[in-house]
Amino acid sequence: MKNMLLTLFASTLILSLSACAPAYANDTELIPTDIGNIVDFVTGIVFIFISVVASFIAERVLSYVEATLSIKIDDSTREYFYRALDNAIGYGQTLAQQTTKDRSQLEIENDIVRGAIGYLNASVPDALEHFQFDETKLENLIRARLNKA
């Protein structure tokens, strides 16, 4: 059981690391980035840990019940109990992944636009005030110019 869980953990780690490729941003736009793979990876690791702890606790509970009640729990009953525990943990993991699925979208603002706005604010603040440029107008103007270049 312990070796099986370690193998499951190692294979999940290897497969998930290959799915966690970073998003490379284009210099001219906001890049919507889905971090769902990373969230799924972390959720998987957490639920592997929960599975190991729950299996350990379940084994202790079954041993305690056997010792306290002076009965022998047969292997088929143990197997049924562990299968039910695995199903419950699997359901919890699926529910957690569904809950986090909608929250895994980020927008990464590129550094060029932010740097250009900072440069203009530092270099020509009077001109920006005269032409009534706020940060949104500046951002739109810079993005439009970058897309033409």
Summarize the structure.
The protein has 149 residues and is mostly helical. It is built from six helices and two strands.
What characteristics describe this protein?
149 residues; 75% helix; rod-shaped; mainly alpha; two-stranded antiparallel ribbon; 2 strands; 2 domains
Topology:
Layout: H1 2-19, E1 31-34, H2 36-69, H3 75-101, E2 105-108, H4 111-123, H5 125-130, H6 135-148
Antiparallel strand pairs: 1-2
Helix pairs in contact: 1-2, 2-3, 4-6
Structure explained in plain terms:
The protein has 2 domains: 2-26 and 35-106, no CATH class; 111-148, no CATH class. It is mainly alpha-helical. Residues 18-28 have low confidence and may be disordered. Helix 1 runs antiparallel to helix 2 and helix 4 packs across helix 6 (135-148). The protein has helices at residues 2-19, 36-69, 75-101, 111-123, 125-130, 135-148, and strands at residues 31-34, 105-108.
Estimate what percentage of residues fall within beta strands: 5-15%
Mean pLDDT: 76
User: What's the shape?
Assistant: rod-shaped
Strand neighbour order, sheet with most strands: 1-2
Uncertain ranges: 18-28
Structural class: mainly alpha
Count all strands and give the number. 2
- Terminal-residue CA separation: 60 Å
Number of domains: 2
Instruction: Report the total helices.
Output: 6
Pattern of helices and strands:
HEHHEHHH
Biggest pleated sheet: 2 strands, antiparallel
| Rg, nearest Å | 27 Å
Helix amount: over 70%
